[in-house]
Amino acid sequence: MKKPLIILATFCLLFSCGETKEKENKLVKKSNTQSSVFEDSNAVFGSNKSSEDPITNPENISIKLTPFVPQYEWIGDSSTKLLKDRLNNAITKVGYGGEGANPRFIIGPSVNILSSNLTATAPPKYANTYEINFMVVDTQTETVFNSYSTELKGVGDSEEKAFISGARNLKLNTQGFIDFLKQSENKIFKYFEDNCSEILAEANSEAAIRNYDVAFSLLNSIPKESEECFKSVQEKKISFFELNLNTSCAELLNKMRAELGKFNDSSGSGFNAEAMHYYSLIDAKSNCYKDAQKEYNEYVSKLNPVSKRDWNQKLVEYKDEIELVKQGKLFEMEEKKMAFEYQTKIKEIESKTEIEGNKRLLAKYKHDESPWLIRLFSSGSKLLKGEMSTSN
User: Fold this and answer.
1) 263 and 222 housed in the same domain
2) Is residue 284 part of a domain?
3) 275 φ, ψ to 5°?
4) 178: domain range?
5) Which of 52, 122, 178, 337 shows a CA-CA span of 20 to 30 A to 292?
6) How far apart are CA 131 and CA 114, in angstroms?
7) Over the stretch 154-206, which tens digit does the pLDDT of each residue have?
8) DSSP labels, 54-73
9) The model's pTM
10) How many alpha carbons lie under 13 Å from residue 117 in its C-beta half-sphere?
11) How many domains does the chain fold into?
12) Does residue 218 share a domain with residue 171?
């Protein structure tokens, strides 16, 4: 009786193995069927056919580039965000990106479908090959500085999922991409030198209508590598920054009041460096200077004799340190603490001024509404055929 049972068990085991083998063969056939829709039978789904040469010269770039990805309906919002994040991540590894940068100079992709096929699987899948052409452009002069092409393959249940499959493996951490950014940057350096007077004229026109933050941002975007232009606009840049401070003197005065108001008993308080930073930034010609003077004098008048003597002694030291900042002297935080903090405060305000100015420039340039950008990024292949102008 045992022998038939052993034979039956052996038969079941062999049948099970055969069924497993048959399933494996079916999976292989399905995979081969998917691969055959691409011209390259060795293609890996979600692969990137760009030059994946290792980084041998990891140079940083100093030009801020604003990532711009146009709305391609067929790749969807998720794919657009993925592409923009990958692009921004690649830029920030070697320099500066983000939408806080000067929106005049942008880097963006033109996406073209080179081939689109459906697999013979059930259900069928989209198997697409894409060409992505990254371009660095000047939105104002409608100039393309440089371009970099890469090829992706992706498979998915929909057009969007097929693109995401390929974009997930987009490799921009290559020497080829870094060289592309560096070459673009050098062309932008040359552009600033060749067009310095036009940039200054634009900044002056913005200042004429009291857009001092925009005027400051335009001149602050000139890189130090464009030496002649950079040196020639420094006085104007400082002037626009000071004029912007004057227009925001009410904000500075409120911050000064807030710092002084932190002490319930002003007669017993010591020298308040934070309040003095804001007070020192209020220009004598600004509208709220008289109010600032009144606020300052009233506060000091309430100090008791010991605190007032300490205040006056600290004030002399403070003025000496602030003069070092105005002369552009370098110092360590421990050496001149109040001067270092004042310098940090100025940097914060400068950064805020630049960001606010760039926001207004972003609204001015209106990337999504620019007919030139729409044509450029929806037909990148025309650029490669020489049908669109580029910089030399």
Assistant:
1) no
2) yes
3) -65, -40
4) 37-194+366-386
5) 337
6) 6
7) 999 988 899 888 888 888 888 889 899 999 989 999 999 999 999 999 999 99
8) PPS------SB-EE-----T
9) 0.67
10) 17
11) 3
12) no
